[in-house]
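We now fix the convention by which a protein and its fold are recorded. The integers have meaning only within a learned vocabulary of local backbone shapes. The record below shows the convention in full.
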Amino acid sequence: MKAKFLGHATVKIDDLLIDPWTKEIEGFGLKPPYEYTEEDKKFKVMCITHNHPDHCLGAEELVKEANATLIAGFELAAEFLQKGLQANPMNIGGTIEQEGWKIYMTPAWHSASSNPNGFILQKNGKTFYHAGDTGLFEDMERLGKEFSIDIAFLPIGDRFTMGIDEASKAVQLLKPKLVVPMHYNSFDLIRVNENEFKEKVEKAGFACKIVQPGQEIEI
């Protein structure tokens, strides 16, 4: 399996796409840091953690073009269903199966009208954690005990999510085999030194990989 980082908080793992952002956010002048290839647009499942535009702007067109199914919290999934698109609603603590994926919805401490969340994603014996936008929370320790996480994708950009220090503590609670930072340096308000995070994580005994938009990780 391969995990491809598509910039900001967007990750594609096999045939599953998480938190796409493909359009400029009008009024803010914020543009996505990566332009999707045609291959990037081929997927069967899309997971969205919340309805902030940097996590779902362009999702409607992508889901329709790919004839894929969207997985999201009830409120956000209902919006897609009302537009005639394929969506499978769930909520925090719930588990569903879709296209060979086992998907568990986790909490996330954030603000949004669609009830923010993260995802534990399992397929082919591998387990991935996408935290979405979140601050540090103690229940991460439970996630680390219940799931043997191969890769954890964690926000480190501060201001709107965990910063470097809190994300480093999250790694110690989650105990993943590998951590990949996300949600940083996409715009000025979330600029941090990702190498500082890598050093902290590795000093604590965990593996960390800095992945640039468009790069893949072999799992």
User: Anything to note?
Assistant: The mean pLDDT is 98. The chain has one domain: 2-218. The longest strand covers residues 101-107. DSSP finds six helices and 13 strands in the chain.
